[in-house]
Amino acid sequence: MKKKHFATSKDKKDWVEFTKQMSNVSAKESDLPKKNTEINKVQKLDLHGSSLIKANEIVKNFIIKSFNDGYKKLLVVTGKGLRSKSYDNPYLSEKLSTLKYSVPEYIKNDENLNKKISRISQADLKDGGEGAIYIFLKNNKKFTE
User: Is residue 27 in some structural domain?
Assistant: First the structure.
């Protein structure tokens, strides 16, 4: 049989004092700054229909702006390149002319962008799978060029 422990008068007094201060306690959601919840959202960029040169320019500006705004995770939808005209041209590499392959390659070859990125990975199926990539950015507060 378990012993029953009764609250002491000091415990009761402490509890009453604590409950009087409950009006000063705010909900957890209101404690988080709005900017923090916005930064944790995934920024999305869709490159469907963009040419290779235009897509690289758009991606570069998107990464720099997102990094400066303090975002951590980006989703870039490149598409799978199924309608790419490179499949009909034997002189062009099928892989390098589709955005799916060229955008990550462009980022890796741009030293300024590469410094801002911690890693790039294929997106989850729900976010586009093989036709999209995640770009994880470094903390811009710790960043020094």
Answer: no
